[in-house]
Amino acid sequence: MAAEGIRLNKLLSEKGICSRRDAVHWIEAGRVVVNGRRPEPGSRLTAKDQLRVDGRIIDFEVEEHVYLALN
């Protein structure tokens, strides 16, 4: 079963905030906060989470994939 949500470093990169590698450094430096707490670099976010970078709220959507099997 696949893990739910999107990896935090990938989300920051896709939003154009920083590179994935820089995201790890920002997370470790405490610049990134999820739901009022410092996350781990490999954390996954869901649509219910609140993300802040340098105190600024970052809006995001978690895409859900739908797979169809046709026969």
Mind telling me which CATH architecture this is? Roll
Helicity, as a percent range: 10-25%
> What is the CATH level 1 assignment?
Alpha Beta
The CATH topology annotation reads as Structural Genomics Hypothetical 15.5 Kd Protein In mrcA-pckA Intergenic Region, Chain A
Please give a structural write-up.
- The protein is α+β, with helices and mostly antiparallel strands and 71 residues long.
- It has a single domain (7-58), classed as Structural Genomics Hypothetical 15.5 Kd Protein In mrcA-pckA Intergenic Region, Chain A (Roll).
- The chain has 2 helices and 5 strands; from the N terminus they run E-H-H-E-E-E-E.
- It has helices at 8-14, 20-29; strands spanning 6-7, 32-34, 44-45, 51-53, 56-58.
- The strands form 2 sheets. A 3-stranded antiparallel sheet has the order 2-4-5. Strands 1-3 form a two-stranded antiparallel sheet.
- Helix 1 packs across helix 2 (20-29).
- It is elongated, with a radius of gyration of 13 Å.
- It starts with 5 loop residues before the first strand and ends in a 13-residue tail after the last strand.
- The mean pLDDT is 90.
Quick overview of this protein structure:
With 71 residues, the protein is of the alpha+beta class.
Topology readout:
Blueprint: E1 6-7, H1 8-14, H2 20-29, E2 32-34, E3 44-45, E4 51-53, E5 56-58
Antiparallel strand pairs: 1-3, 2-4, 4-5
Keyword list:
single chain; 71 residues; alpha+beta; Structural Genomics Hypothetical 15.5 Kd Protein In mrcA-pckA Intergenic Region, Chain A; 3-stranded antiparallel beta sheet; two-stranded antiparallel ribbon; 5 strands; 24% helix; 18% strand; elongated
